[in-house]
Structure formats: structure tokens, C-alpha cells
Write a structure and sequence with these properties.
This is HTH-type transcriptional activator RhaR. The protein is 39% helix and 23% strand. It has 287 residues and is an alpha+beta fold. The two termini are 19 Å apart.
């Protein structure tokens, strides 16, 4: 309940500052959370990034103001954080499909992105098993691509990347290189300002392993909360991710550290009812 109140207060704060300049540190402070953890929680719960939410809300408010008043487009642009009429017009057209000036016309259709709200939902009737593991740093080798969370593009591109890797033999090559038969889907290098992160299809490998043209990186030492997903992919693991952020984090004293997180895919048929894989999230106890 305390977490729900804090998230509501953070939303209230954002809404009150739509005509002002503020940053993620200010918002996270209202929620008594680290900036990274707040942004990760917000995205996992709402499906939009904090930055995208603020942008869409500002463009919604700007459209309403243009439709009911004679205020100059430049003034509206500056009011909602745009440096020039050109940048405002570009963002406005992308959001509403028309120019800011056209928003003044009678009968024109505008799109509204409503204010979000959080409601108490009683869950937890189903046990959620997890374990905490501490691991030293380890090396991985794999295929890497920068992803953007803008308009949910990462949700479309990541599944396609896996299809490509499975069809062109990349996954098989990586399994041959790895120290075991497990393959990892890693999210790292989160940049919430740019709304990007790097996504890896990779395997664990020793420092001496020949990368054979693949990229390599080091996953830093961390304490991990590890959750097991049971069921056909991708539905089972998507449901597990949702429960972690909707139920587990709010009810425990843990926060995401901001480091890499990954899914560990065990050998087996991903479409089987008893297929097992794991979610590894780097965590720390709240101070």
C-alpha cells in the first residue's frame, strides 16, 4: 500500500510540473526510490517510459490549449518544453497527425493520452518462489543490437531478432562457443534519457574463448533475484516479468541496481507446457 501511495504521489508531481522543467531525480525522490528503479518500475507497469509519458501528456495538454484558445503556437511550444516551433510541430504532427495550427480548426480530431492512475489490486494469492544468488563477474559472447523503447519498438524488435538468430544459425553457433548449453537474453546499458538499451543474445564464455566474430562484454558481480518461469514461451515469461514488478518488488525491501538483467533459456522445447527458464535481476536492499 505504501508503494502504491508513493507511485500516485510521483504521478501527481509529474502532472503538476507539466509546464515546468524537472528531471527524473526529482520524480524518483517523491517516490523514495532510486532514479533507475523508479524508471524501470514505471516502464514495466505502464508499458511506456517516464520520458515518453511526459511527452505524450504535454502534447495532449498542448492540443487542448490550442483548440480552445488563441494563444500563439510559439508560446504553447515554449510552455510545454520545446525550444522551437519546428521541433514542437514535428512532435505534434507525430502525436496527432496534424499541424499545431490545424488543431484550431472546428471539428478536427485530436488524440488524448490520458493521465495514468494506480489502483489497489489485491494479488499474491499465488506463491512466488525466488532465490538470491551472488555471482562474481562473468564474460559473455554474442550478438548485440541497440534497442529503443520509444513507442514500444523494443517489444517488436526483440522477438524478431530471436527469430533471425534461430533461423540463420546464430543461436546454434553461440551454444557451441558457450561453456554450457544455456543461452541468454541480456538487457544492459540502459539510457533512460535517450530511451535506449543494448540487447544481447549471448552465452557465457571464458576470457580465453575465441569470440569468432561475435561481440563480448562482462557482466559485473552482483546479487541476483532469480525467478523460474514454467510454461510455453513467450507468454509464461512475460507473465513472470509482470508479477515481479507488480507483486514482488512492491512487497519486498529490494530495488533494481541498474545493472544488466537477463533471461536464461535452458535446453528444451520453448513451446512445451513444462518448459523452464529463469529471470535474473540484479538487486540491492533499500537503505
Amino acid at each position: 500500500m505504501e508503494w502504491l501511495i508513493r507511485m500516485k504521489e510521483a504521478l501527481d508531481y509529474m502532472e503538476s510540473k507539466m509546464e515546468e522543467t524537472f528531471n527524473i531525480e526529482d520524480i524518483a525522490k517523491v517516490a523514495y526510490s532510486s532514479p533507475f528503479h523508479f524508471q524501470r518500475m514505471f516502464y514495466m507497469l505502464t508499458g511506456v517510459s517516464v520520458k515518453d509519458y511526459i511527452r505524450k501528456r504535454r502534447l495532449t495538454l498542448a492540443a487542448q490549449e490550442l483548440a480552445i484558445s488563441k494563444v500563439k503556437v510559439l508560446d504553447v511550444a515554449l510552455k510545454y518544453g520545446y525550444d522551437s516551433p519546428e521541433s514542437f510541430a514535428k512532435a505534434f504532427r507525430k502525436a496527432h497527425g496534424i499541424t499545431p495550427s490545424a488543431a484550431r480548426e472546428s471539428g478536427v480530431q485530436l488524440k488524448a493520452f490520458p493521465r495514468l492512475s494506480f489502483h489497489l489490486s489485491l494479488k499474491g494469492d499465488k506463491e512466488m518462489d525466488y532465490r538470491i544468488e551472488t555471482r562474481d563477474a562473468f564474460n559473455v559472447i554474442g550478438l548485440v543490437e541497440e534497442m529503443t523503447t520509444k513507442d514500444g519498438e523494443n517489444l517488436r524488435r526483440i522477438p524478431q531478432l530471436w527469430i533471425e538468430a534461430n533461423e540463420d544459425g546464430t543461436s546454434d553457433k553461440l551454444i557451441e562457443i558457450g561453456v554450457d548449453k544455456d543461452i541468454l537474453g541480456i538487457c544492459k546499458d540502459f539510457n533512460h534519457e535517450k530511451e535506449t538499451f543494448s540487447y544481447w543474445i549471448a552465452v557465457e564464455a571464458s576470457p580465453e574463448t575465441d569470440a569468432q566474430g561475435f561481440a563480448s562484454t562482462t557482466i559485473p558481480a552482483a546479487s541476483w533475484a532469480v525467478f523460474t518461469s514454467v510454461g510455453p514461451m513467450p507468454d509464461a515469461i512475460q507473465q513472470a516479468w509482470a508479477r515481479i514488478f507488480q507483486e514482488w518488488f512492491p512487497s519486498t525491501g529490494y530495488e533494481h541496481t541498474g545493472g544488466p538483467e537477463f533471461e536464461l533459456y535452458l535446453p528444451g522445447r520453448p513451446d512445451a507446457e513444462d518448459y523452464r527458464c529463469e529471470i535474473w535481476i540484479p538487486v540491492m536492499k533499500k537503505s
